[in-house]
Amino acid sequence: MKPRFTITQVIWLALFATAHAPQLSATEEKNPGATIDRLYRVDCGHSLANDESVWTPGENKGKSIEFSSTCYLIQHGSEYIMWDTGVPETAIGDPKGWSTLPSLIVYHLDRTISSQLAQIGLKPSDIDYVLVSHTHGDHIGNVGLFPDATVVMQQAEYEWINSPPPSDPNLNTLVQLARKLLGHPRRLELVTGDVDLFRDGSVRLLSTPGHTPGSQSLMVHLGKTGYVILSGDVAHLEDNFERDIVPALNVDKPESISSMDRIKQIMTEYDAQLFINHDKHQADELKLLPDFYH
């Protein structure tokens, strides 16, 4: 069994990071030169939405838009981490697709996570951590594939999906689906705020609430590529990110804008790139497993 953090250690790390500063600083790192070995983009589906204005309020009413659904595999020494798990594998090849909100968006899956891991000689049981950006179904659809992994998510997110249902019917549907797809992981780590996962600056969860109460992004440090921030759903499109456009289904608009602004500041401080999960135009230009960033 590979070493894992206990719940106490992870929560301590989160509280330590939150108490020291709302902004990351290189001086806080124990080893600012620490890096991950490889970052793989995993194809976790694509979707077609029938009204782009849900994601760009006041603009593009009635216009359809295609989104990507992207997961990432991170190699840190002998340990492997999945960032999100995408559309459920049961949707593979289904011409009708799969949906979180059928009236708005339908997802399609062309390849499974399992088959993509197999391309580089891995099995789902080789994954040590599943880091959850947030609990929408297109991000946690395959958490159950990794029963031996430690699932790490924000305490606020867990409490949200296990609280009385939201009054908005769409949000209520998303929350009910989240409870079903998340299930009851055997190793569940609930954290608060930023977390330096390995205490070396190479893999850091960044608290970015707004899309959901416990949304988070992830920053990884690579030797050649430098710093990369994996967006979660802090923004769905590059234009939204640049102009602080908040989707209608986000639970908190001011928090959403604050989180986007925070990511912009961190990008400046670390000269970091932002990989936007649902921006298909950008995703199509990124390397895809078995290719990788290092």
Description:
The chain is of the alpha/beta class. The protein has one domain: Ribonuclease Z/Hydroxyacylglutathione hydrolase-like (Metallo-beta-lactamase, Chain A). Helices cover 25% and strands 23% of the residues. Strands 4-1-2-3-5-6-7 form a seven-stranded mixed beta sheet. The longest helix is centred in the last third of the chain and has 18 residues. It starts with 6 loop residues before the first helix and ends in an 11-residue tail after the last helix.
Give the helix/strand layout.
Layout: H1 7-20, E1 38-49, E2 65-76, E3 79-83, E4 105-108, H2 113-119, E5 129-131, H3 137-140, E6 150-154, H4 155-161, H5 169-182, E7 188-191, E8 195-196, E9 203-207, E10 216-222, E11 226-230, H6 238-243, H7 253-270, E12 273-275, H8 280-283
Parallel strand pairs: 3-5, 5-6, 6-7, 11-12
Antiparallel strand pairs: 1-2, 1-4, 2-3, 8-9, 9-10, 10-11
Question: Quick recap of the structure?
Answer:
The protein is 25% helix and 23% strand. The protein has 294 residues and is an alpha/beta fold. The strands form two sheets. A seven-stranded mixed beta sheet has the order 4-1-2-3-5-6-7. It has a five-stranded mixed beta sheet with strand order 8-9-10-11-12.
Order of helices and strands: HEEEEHEHEHHEEEEEHHEH
Give start-end ranges of low-pLDDT stretches.
1-30
> What summary fits the major beta sheet?
7 strands, mixed
- Class in CATH? Alpha Beta
Major beta sheet, strand line-up: 4-1-2-3-5-6-7
Number of strand elements: 12
